[in-house]
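name: query_chain
kind: protein
chains: 1
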Amino acid sequence: MEIMYSSTRGHGGKVTASQAILKGLAEDGGLFVPDSIPSLDKSLKELSEMNYQGVAYEVMKLFLTDFTEEELKNCINRAYDSKFDTEVIAPLAYAEGAYYLELFHGATIAFKDMALSILPHLMITSARKNNIKNEIVILTATSGDTGKAALAGFADVEGTRIIVFYPKSGVSPIQEKQMVTQKGANTLVVGIKGNFDDAQTGVKKMFGDKELEKELAGKGFQFSSANSINIGRLVPQIVYYVYSYAQLLKEEKIKDGEAINVVVPTGNFGNILAAFYAKNMGLPIAKLICASNTNKVLYDFFETGDYDRNRDFHLTTSPSMDILISSNLERLIYRIAGNNAERNSELMADLSSKGIYSITDEEKKQLKDFYGGYADEKETADEIARVYKACGYVMDTHTAVASSVYHKYEEKTGDKTVTVIASTASPFKFTRSVMNAIDKKYDAYDDFTLIDELSKLANVKIPQAIEDIRTAPVVHDHVCEINEMPDVVRGFLK
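structure:
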């Protein structure tokens, strides 16, 4: 069955998967969604006998129906290779009553690698399929991890350029060093004087700027996105939830068909939306536990049905979740509105003009599979220390938010369902926050001494991604105001 894609805001008609990947964002500002969510056509037992690449093919073929088997397998095999430091690609680690799905074994030690390792291959294949002659310009806003993973994926890929905007004062020192040392003649990294939401809004405005689009097309360029709004990011993320279930089944930790809970530290809502799609494909998931940090806009939404970004913005130790406009939530809103693009457009217009929208009681009932929780800064640090002292397992700040929320949920509900927690980044990416949580004495250490200490403490080898930036020179030092973003793009593309 061919799956087609259309905008959550109703304009532009249906497009193929490859066309949706190339466009990134729909022309009316909406997000591309499949016209139906396909069901898994392999049994859970069959999936449990496959490696990561095999599961990836079985899941992705159902969504990317205009890709041939050869094309899709080529993309998968080029993505999930020796760039990952384990053949398992996404291992499960058991600690303190839950399974931590480690999604940080790729080139940039964050979960974004899981999708951004394959997106360049999907995009180049899509361009060939659609006879695109323009150079593709990847325009991306990042709260810390997407930027480096996208840069690593697209660096020196023929026929592409990539421009990454990040909040200059809103990422960790390691995140920033990873980005500003990125090599590649086709790469540009720019710090903006603002927060992630400012960067994301600026990028969306450029996507919607018809004059800019026309100007660039005349010079042989067209925009696309590597953000989680791109369906080519979302589909690969579904894979690891299916794979984690298959591994639990293979290791006889669960029975065939037994439901599990999934906990996801959530910012832009893409990662937990992928788990929701997996559930709708037939994967036995009971609760989707959405974990927020102090910027708890999603927690409040699940509690009240009101999405309200009119609040103070907090810079936290889990910066990839410091987001007040969770773009991917629009895909869920469209679905609970009965795939009604007009209703969804009204709500998104309210968000844009008033900073708030409210769903109906009937729509809220359709969120019954979700549970919202949050952990503040103290709870996050306490969770890192608690788990380390209990069993020696060291997690990063984002994973700690999810872990804290999970244990509070378990205590509140008594729910003992087998649980998978998405561990979204290596602790080496947020070394200072992690080490300070374990012992305040580490605050006096410099960043790279802290890395050596963390390696000893956790008994884990320092990731190559960290070794690579110890002495790497800064290549990108551009900083701009929010309103200067289009001119920066023009300047880079000359």
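note: The domain at 92-109+232-460 is CATH 3.40.50.1100 (Rossmann fold).
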